[in-house]
Amino acid sequence: MTPRLFVVSAPSGTGKTTIVKRLVEENPGVSLAVSHTTRPPREREQDKRDYYFVSDTAFDEIRGDNGFLEHADVFGNRYGTSRREVSEKLASGRQVILEIDWQGAEQVRRAKPDAQGIFLLPPSREELEKRLRGRNTDKPEVVERRFFEARHDVRKWTDFHYVLVNDDIDETCRRMSKILTGDGAQYAVSDLRHRARVEELIGADDW
Questions:
Q1: The whole model's pTM is what?
Q2: 198 is in which domain, residue-wise?
Q3: Would you say residue 48 lies in a domain?
Q4: 3-state SS, residue 4
Q5: How distant, in Å, are the alpha carbons of 118, 161, 178, 187 from that of 192?
Q6: Pick from 14, 38, 34: which is nearest to 24 by CA?
Q7: How many CB atoms lie within 10 A of CB 148?
Q8: Cβ atoms of residues 66 and 107 within 8 Å
Q9: Is 56 inside any structural domain?
Q10: Which of 41, 55, 143, 195 has the fewest CB atoms below 10 angstroms from its CB?
Q11: How many structural domains compose the chain?
Q12: What is the DSSP string of 53-75?
């Protein structure tokens, strides 16, 4: 199978980090492109495994050398994925996942038109709010901002190749694995029946 780059995006609190980590752990043929960030590590996060934790100065140096495939400011912190990271992972012969927000995904689409985009949606507005408030990793004002922006982000799913509703982690991982192996056409945004189901879900909720 030809190595490809898959961009996974989702509103904050949808569970994309949990799902991506599990996919990488359970599939030897899948690799995660680790991003750089200027934010401090959270509990249990490790440098070079979860992120490359760097200073603002180091981030600026990489950006100045055109070293980032994409970069964005998110909630006061900066994130970016280096071109070298992606190239080396693809050269290893594995499918590569890039876990970034929709803004970064737009940059990747322009730089690598053959990249495949996967968008994850929460099952409902209520469930999204519950997940965000239950994380206990952010200040209350940050949680409110994340929830406000997440309600806007859900509308971006039509810009991606595939869309999945994360109402069950096991099932979502199974479906995403099918996409990575080229067997996930039924989850494509272009599939009219699948698209109609997603539109019904989004339209039924007061986002």
A1: 0.86
A2: 5-33+94-204
A3: no
A4: coil
A5: 17, 13, 19, 10
A6: 34
A7: 10
A8: no
A9: no
A10: 55
A11: 1
A12: E--HHHHHHHHHTT-EEEEEEET
